[in-house]
Amino acid sequence: MKAKSVDKFFNSILYIVSIFIILLLISLISYIIFNGRNFLRFEFLFGNPKIGEAGGGIGPQLFNSFYMLIISLLITVPLGVGAGIYLAQYAKNKRLLYIIRLCLETMSSLPSIVVGLFGLLVFVKATGWGFTLLSGSLAVAIINLPGLTRVSENAIISSASLVEEASLGLGATRWQTIKKVVLPSAMPQILTGVILASGRIFGEAAALLYTAGMSAPILNIHSNVTSKSFPLNLMRPAETLSVYIWQLNSEGMVPDAAQIANGAAAVLIIMVLVFNIFSRIIGNKIYKKYTGSK
Which cellular compartments is it found in (predicted)? Predict the structure, then answer.
């Protein structure tokens, strides 16, 4: 009876803590969206900033955030998942594994401002690129790579323990087993790592200040592909939404800087929520397709 009472007591504490965290998250999201509700308009979402004037929009910054998300994930996901596959399936030298994992843990503990300074020295200065979208994407990839690698490794190890021997026993090669059996089974956990990496990209500001810059040229799809105003040019400055929010709150370059910052923060929160929801839906569909579950 005493053990049951203790069990119920600690279960109740865990439920209370969980409910408190959920309420805190809902309150925070509601507060941010409520404060920025007046700016959730078409002109604000797709308009250009007006330096020194009231009003203006966040169109270039919004586009830069999504574009940097795509470019950074194109760099991070193949490297992170590939490294996870190597560590989980192919690396057998324990000393080498220890060194690689130590390096990953060290990289994951680096402050983003340090990665930003490294990006400034290497991607901005040493390469001669200057402040570019590509420099920012590479800096964010360095931040996200350790976490995605460890998530992928753990997901593959846990999934492989259930299905790998059965697949190999049926005559499949190691690569066929990894590609057709292990990776689909590990996809939900890997997708969680990708979602966490994406959230870091949306919210990152410190590293991007020193690599992508704090200017957002007015974008024009009809301009030359090498022009700084061409949207898909990787070698142009690219101020993201999080950097723009920081700039508004720190410099106050427009009369209604606080209101625009509140609206941009609301848009950023909604972007993260929508991306998380759609990523979960897509991940579940991929998992069901490969596993044959309904």
Answer: Cell membrane
